[in-house]
User: Which sequence fits this backbone?
């Protein structure tokens, strides 16, 4: 009896909801349907050929291991510096003066 009552209330609620808000439907975009189909193809190909599946699993394991290795490398120590124009000394100032060029 409670399940029948629950079904009736649920049906009425859905009717009222549809009257107020309308019927909502969702259709996947084309790129998502295309991606889902390609993933299914790859899955079927891997199931059909166990050697290929093992090679893909090994490649993913290597990629994961390489990523983990790279992320755990020590970070380098950086030094900040500035470059300034060198000043003139006494000899340079004397030889660069306009009077000495005559």
Assistant:
């Amino acid at each position: 009896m409670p399940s029948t009552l629950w079904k009736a209330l649920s049906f009425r609620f859905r009717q009222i909801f549809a009257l107020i808000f309308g019927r909502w439907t969702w259709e996947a975009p084309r790129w998502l349907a295309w991606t889902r189909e390609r993933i299914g193809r790859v899955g079927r190909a891997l199931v059909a050929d166990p050697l290929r599946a093992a090679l893909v699993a090994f490649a993913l394991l290597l990629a994961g291991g390489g990523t983990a290795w790279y992320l755990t490398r020590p970070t380098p120590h950086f030094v900040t510096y500035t470059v300034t124009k060198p000043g003139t000394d006494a000899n340079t100032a004397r030889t660069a003066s306009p009077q000495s060029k005559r």
